[in-house]
Design brief:
- This protein has about 240 residues and is α+β, with helices and mostly antiparallel strands.
- It contains six helices and twelve strands.
- The strands form three sheets. It has a five-stranded antiparallel β-sheet.
- α1 packs across α3 and α1 packs parallel to α6.
- The longest helix has 29 residues.
- The radius of gyration is 19 Å and the shape is globular.
- This is tRNA(Ile)-lysidine synthetase.
């Protein structure tokens, strides 16, 4: 037991450090990130350069959420991207997400490749970005990307450049029956946005970051951890 104690203490310190980093990233996201259009995240470009490591962690979280991935992108590649976010007109991909810089703002959306087409079922997670939260539809449906042909031209706006908004909307899910796109509103079926890194499992030290991004994308924030403080040594 004496040999285990130092390992447990190290684990607690690492968990506390990660929780603090998550809380700082959550505050950054709440201050600087917006949902500019369906599927399109907007981040204040100046903040990504001014807030150093916190901005980098928040950027990695938002890349994973936009791309629907279960893991955050590589730190070194994310740091290299962060250094380029003042390049107006920049357009790159990382972690299945398109990153575009327009007039000092950073936009992120799912790239239009390798989008799944899945039969609709209860609790299905589609592309790491949406969950079928309710399914009372008897007829066979599939869930797939909307596609550009089914996306109306978006209205231009300061927070949503037309081309980016349309590309983001084309990668958003829609219900299909046969070859017919039914859109997002189907009686008896409910879709909820989820955050890819925590779509199936949410460690307690990631709660703050998960809540921040779920509020951002219109998902259902998780409840407080029932285990927090259950051990006197963790207080």
């Amino acid at each position: 037991h004496a040999d285990i104690a130092p390992l447990l203490a190290t684990g607690r310190r690492m968990a506390a450090a990660r929780a603090l980093a998550g809380e700082e990233a959550a505050a950054f996201i709440a201050r600087h990130a917006r949902l500019a259009a369906p599927g399109l995240l907007r981040l204040a470009g100046a903040a990504t350069r001014a807030e150093g490591e916190t901005a980098l962690y928040a950027l990695r979280i938002l890349l994973a959420v936009a791309g629907g991935t279960s893991h955050l992108p590589d730190e070194a590649r994310s740091r290299a991207l962060q250094a380029r976010l003042e390049e107006d007109g920049l357009r790159v991909t990382l972690s299945r997400a398109v990153v575009a810089v327009r007039r000092g703002a950073v936009y992120l959306h799912r790239e239009g490749r390798h989008l799944p087409r899945l039969d609709v079922a209860a609790d299905l997670v589609w592309d790491g970005r949406y969950r079928v939260a309710e399914c009372r539809q008897a007829e066979a449906l599939t869930l797939a990307a909307s596609g550009r042909e089914n996306v109306p031209p978006p209205e231009s706006g300061e927070e949503a450049p037309r081309g980016l908004a349309r590309a983001a909307a084309a990668a958003e899910p829609a219900f299909w029956q046969g070859g017919l796109c039914l859109g997002r509103a189907v009686p008896g079926v409910v879709l909820q946005p989820v955050a890819g890194p925590w779509a199936r499992f949410l460690p307690c030290f990631d709660l703050a970051a998960a809540r921040a991004v779920l509020r951002l994308i219109g998902g259902v924030p998780p409840p407080p951890s029932p285990w927090r403080g259950h051990n006197d040594d963790d207080r």
